[in-house]
């Protein structure tokens, strides 16, 4: 059990973390938009990354992976299909199932996005020494793992 002073210090740390996360997220989105990746939003890029890594997927599976609705995936897919980055096909085994897959043009864009992501991460971590970067990576991984175990 924490003393009142310990609890106040704890809350101060959490408030500083909250503010830091907010500022980093804002910087991340600003830098993403500056780099204008083919007019893609972050979620559209995530959809391309999922298809690139995992191959053709059902709309419902992508919706679950991206934590959005199937309708949102369909809307994103329409835009990505129009840009030639994604293709839509019916499943060969069940014609009711619609599959989305990445095109060769989409794969090229994923490579481009990867290099831009690294540029942005370099910018976000400027000023950190290598050991600090390793420690930040370890701590962020620990947070992600703790929440993954809860779900």
| Unreliable segments of 5+ consecutive residues | none
Count of separate DSSP helical elements: 6
Task: State the helical fraction.
Answer: over 70%
Main sheet characteristics:
3 strands, antiparallel
Alpha-carbon distance between the two ends = 26 Å
The radius of gyration is: 20 Å
Please name the CATH architecture of the largest domain.
Orthogonal Bundle
Number of domains: 2
Could you give the order of strands across the largest sheet? 1-3-2
The CATH topology annotation of the largest domain reads as Arc Repressor Mutant, subunit A
What is the class of the largest domain in the CATH system? Mainly Alpha
Can you put this structure into words, describing what you see?
The protein is mainly alpha-helical. It folds into 2 domains: 1-34; 39-150, Winged helix-like DNA-binding domain superfamily/Winged helix DNA-binding domain (Arc Repressor Mutant, subunit A, Orthogonal Bundle), CATH 1.10.10.10. Helix content is 71%, strand content 8%. It has helices spanning 4-34, 42-54, 59-66, 70-82, 104-124, 130-150, and strands at 57-58, 86-90, 98-102. It has a 3-stranded antiparallel β-sheet with strand order 1-3-2. Helix 1 crosses helix 5 and helix 3 packs across helix 4 (70-82). The radius of gyration is 20 Å and the shape is globular.
How are the elements arranged and paired?
Elements: H1 4-34, H2 42-54, E1 57-58, H3 59-66, H4 70-82, E2 86-90, E3 98-102, H5 104-124, H6 130-150
Antiparallel strand pairs: 1-3, 2-3
């Amino acid at each position: 059990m924490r003393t009142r002073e310990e609890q106040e210090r704890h809350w101060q740390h959490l408030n500083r973390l909250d503010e830091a996360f907010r500022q980093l997220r804002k910087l991340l989105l600003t830098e993403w938009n500056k780099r204008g990746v083919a007019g893609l939003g972050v979620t559209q890029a995530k959809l391309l990354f999922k298809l690139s890594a995992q191959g053709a997927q059902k709309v419902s599976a992508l919706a679950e992976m991206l934590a959005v609705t199937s309708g949102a995936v369909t809307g994103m897919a329409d835009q990505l299909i129009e840009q030639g980055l994604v293709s839509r096909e019916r499943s060969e085994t069940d014609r009711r199932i619609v599959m989305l897959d990445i095109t060769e043009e989409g794969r090229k864009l994923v490579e481009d996005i990867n290099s831009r992501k690294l540029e942005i991460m370099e910018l976000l971590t400027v000023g950190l020494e290598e050991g600090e970067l390793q420690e930040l990576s370890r701590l962020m991984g620990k947070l992600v793992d703790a929440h993954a175990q809860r779900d």
